[in-house]
Write a structure and sequence with these properties.
heterodimer; A: 448 residues; alpha+beta; Rieske Iron-sulfur Protein; Naphthalene 1,2-dioxygenase Alpha Subunit, Chain A, domain 1; 2 domains; nine-stranded antiparallel sheet; four-stranded antiparallel sheet; B: 151 residues; Nuclear Transport Factor 2, Chain: A; 7 strands; globular
């Protein structure tokens, strides 16, 4: 396999070959052609606020360090010593406080500054000086931010970030516009959960409006038996999560009426499955009232209404990110193997909003997205069952034809005929094929 | 019943899947907390792997019994191995520190958890009720499979 014409056979208008999810050779190609080319979302500027602040992450399988070099610039360094390959920075976050502080390799003590420049080599006389001058921590060639979110690409050339994001920028705008002063910060800890399944399964599931009634039947049932959410100002701390679980049991007509869009790059977003009156502890909630007033003072009433009227639910940025702008949840997926993935789940706080709102975010995250969640755990179980199903060769194809042939072209995006259309999977697969078959000399991502 | 015997009794209820009886061990105002971070101080401003009051804990048990709880049916078989029990007597409550090794088997997969556990037990009618239970997993900050067992 691997010839482009062979790859093209695997993705057809209404079906996908199982090997796209189960073949280790295809996974190797994905790491090179998708995760090695696309813009990947790595985090938020609040994680590297001061010069020297850093955190470790992955780009596909590449271990990287995201570090603030100086007031203006963020660098992303491949976390691998130029000498014998050891990771120079241990996993986690930290700070190189002074300008003279270094990442020191634990193997032979080679040390690197914030920009990845090799600064000192013990026993240095044994090396050719000229050769040492060529060595450094490799810097990821392209780094860019969009409204505070940090993106990077391992490819030296290709479309710029804004073009890559396309119509999905609206979801990031919604995320930021909802925050007073446009200020957001990563806070409240990071959930890290794994599953024995392909990375694409998560991205497909997050926009699937036909799954909650089945996958989440048990959490819908218990949420319906939960105590009624408290009156404004007297809520239980978990009301927001109970409301969300109940909403997963919304009737078919609600799901069908929800908008679903996909962009040429495979991004996608889901429309008005929720609004604040259904979910944020009720519109009469004093903290929410105060929040509205803060926004109104900043933007005026009309613009505030417009900001809060945007009801985008899950957004997928293909190939590595999923977020809920209204609830300030960000999930990044790191593929480990064709049948193994790890997901990092972050919450973001609005520092200028009432403190109570972050408590809602925390409760929501624990119950809906956390490692022992009522909701997430059932998704993970299904991903694993799919992976086991795709491991079998007796049945070759997965069917992705719901709503096919009835998609609606809109500016910058394609809309599904109804909210449960599988238009977003077809969009992701088209983007997948674009990346996988683009010739190496034109690392432009998907052909459009 | 000694505090030590009470902890063994609790473990036995969980390992024999008598979850509804296990729930009865908790006071109405109980908290059941599995922090996300080591030395976590607060369950409201910081995420937790589990942060349940008595109501949520009951919902957790009800979900496990639901026929379409895909990640919980069939229920995991478990062994809760309680050790290093140390008792600190107080006026109203007894503080009990212990260690937990939990072996879980479900769907052809076996998992092992280790945790430092702290109970605050309240004396009620000659026995105890759990007013607060905190379970600090040794790998709470690590990469974990989805968790569907009760610690």
């Amino acid at each position: 396999m691997a010839a482009n014409e062979d790859l093209a056979l695997l993705v057809q208008p209404d079906r996908v070959h199982r090997s796209v999810y189960a073949d280790p050779a295809i996974f190797e190609l994905e790491m090179e052609r998708i995760f090695g080319r696309a813009w990947l979302l790595l985090g938020h500027e609040s994680q590297v606020r001061n010069p020297g602040d850093y955190f470790t992450s992955r780009m596909g399988r590449e271990p990287v360090v995201v570090i603030r070099k100086n007031e203006k610039e963020i660098a992303i360094l491949i976390n691998r010593c130029a000498h014998r390959g050891s990771m120079v920075c241990p996993e986690g976050r930290g700070r190189l406080p002074g300008d003279g502080e270094r990442f020191v390799c634990p193997y032979h003590g080679w040390s690197y500054d914030r920009a990845g420049v090799l600064q000192a080599v013990p026993f240095g006389t044994g090396y050719e000086k000229e050769k040492l001058r060529e060595l450094r921590l490799k810097a990821v060639p392209r780094v860019a931010t969009y409204r505070g979110f940090i993106f990077a690409s391992l490819a030296p050339s290709g479309s710029d970030l804004e073009e890559f994001l396309g119509a999905a920028r609206a979801s990031l705008d919604d995320f930021v516009d909802r925050a007073p002063g446009g200020e957001l910060e990563v806070a409240g800890g990071v959930f890290k959960h794994t599953y024995n399944g392909n990375w694409k399964l998560m991205l497909e599931n997050h926009l699937d409006g036909a799954h909650p009634a089945w996958v989440h039947a048990s959490s819908v049932a218990v949420a319906r038996n939960a105590p009624e959410p408290g009156k404004p100002g007297e809520e239980h701390y978990y009301d927001i999560a109970v409301r969300q679980m109940r909403q997963n049991g919304a009737p078919e007509s609600v799901w069908e009426a929800t908008g679903i869009w996909t962009t040429p790059r495979g991004h996608g977003y889901m429309g008005d499955y929720h609004d604040d009156s259904r979910l944020v502890a009720g519109l009469g909630n004093p903290a929410f009232e105060e929040y509205r007033a803060i926004l109104a003072q900043e933007h005026g009433q009309e613009k505030t209404d417009r900001i809060l009227r945007v009801t985008l639910w899950n957004t997928i940025l293909y190939p590595n990110a999923s977020f809920m702008s209204q609830f300030r949840q960000l999930r990044l997926i790191h593929p480990l193997a064709v049948d193994r993935s790890v997901v990092y789940t972050y919450s973001l706080r609005m520092p200028r909003a009432p403190a109570r709102m972050f408590r809602d975010t925390v409760a929501f995250s624990n119950v809906v997205n956390g490692t022992a969640s009522w909701v997430l755990t059932d998704d993970l179980e299904v991903y694993e069952r799919i992976q086991r199903g795709f491991a079998s060769g007796a049945v070759e194809w997965a069917y992705i034809g719901r709503g096919a042939g009835r998609d609606v072209a809109e500016p910058g995006a394609t809309r599904g005929a109804t909210g449960t259309s599988e238009v977003f999977i077809r969009g992701q697969m088209r983007a997948w094929l674009g990346y996988m078959t683009a010739t190496p000399s034109t690392t432009q991502g998907p052909v459009q | 019943m000694t505090p030590e015997q009470f902890l063994y009794h609790e473990a036995r209820l969980l390992d024999t899947q008598r979850y509804e009886e296990w729930l009865e061990l908790f006071t109405d105002d109980a908290a059941y907390w599995v922090p996300l971070e080591q030395n976590q101080k607060d369950p409201f401003e910081m995420s937790s792997i589990i942060h349940d009051d008595r109501t949520l804990l009951e919902l957790r048990v009800k979900q496990a019994r639901h026929p379409r709880a895909h990640a919980r049916q069939p229920l995991a078989r478990t062994v809760h191995q309680v050790g290093n029990v140390m008792v600190e007597d107080g006026a109203d409550e007894v503080k009990v520190s212990s260690t937990l090794q939990l072996v879980e088997f479900r769907n052809e997969k076996q998992r092992l958890y280790g945790a430092l556990v702290e109970h605050r037990l309240r004396r009620v009618n000659g026995t105890f009720k759990i007013a607060h239970k905190r379970v600090d997993l040794v790998n709470s900050e690590g990469e974990l499979d989805g968790i569907t067992v009760l610690f």
